[in-house]
Amino acid sequence: MRTLVPALALCLLASCAVATAQQAAPPSSAATPAATDNPYTTFTRGAYTAIQNILLHSAEKMPEENYSFKPVASVRTYGQIVGHVADAQYLFCSIALGEKKPDVKVEQTKSSKADLVAALKEAFSYCGKAYDGMTDASGTQMVKLFGDDTPKLSVLTVNNMHSIEHYGNLVTYMRMKGIVPPTSEPGFNARAPKK
Length: 195
Description:
By secondary structure, the chain is mainly alpha-helical. It has one domain (about 45-180): Up-down Bundle (Four Helix Bundle (Hemerythrin (Met), subunit A)). It has 8 helices and 2 strands. It has helices at about 5-25, 30-35, 40-60, 80-95, 105-110, 115-135, 150-175, 190, and strands at about 140-145, 150. The chain has a two-stranded antiparallel ribbon. Helix 3 packs parallel to helix 7 (about 150-175). The longest helix has 25 residues, at about 150-175. The radius of gyration is 17 Å and the shape is globular. The chain starts with a helix and ends with a helix.
């Protein structure tokens, strides 16, 4: 329960950021019908777009020499967190897509910044198929997530929560190295891509 409350708080903050960004953007006629017909999946996809932008900027912003940094011996390095987030995209999105999870072990096989950033981009590309193909109706289909029956859309929501949870880790590491995290940069949300 102690970890659930902070995770839900982070998800709420991410949701507020996405909603604020969506309100600031002028509506396009092409996006309006999808949002009206599929408000839940449209919101979840928008949150994912914002989160992947934040995570990619975090991966790109940290210098290579800090990818092996970890504040204490019992936690992952910065690079391992980036790899873990990439691996999680395959885990959650393969479930939502109804596919066998690709046998990718980014956290265990990649260590350089260039390899991890490239792997993260590939993972987001794979996972984007799940978000882009989901509708409110198909999102109600039940699948197994960690042994429990779960709606497909909820699997994608858990992916968003997991991703933003690990952004919190990356923020701490960046701050310890004197680096301003992406979401603290002036105007970051205004530059974020909209989907």
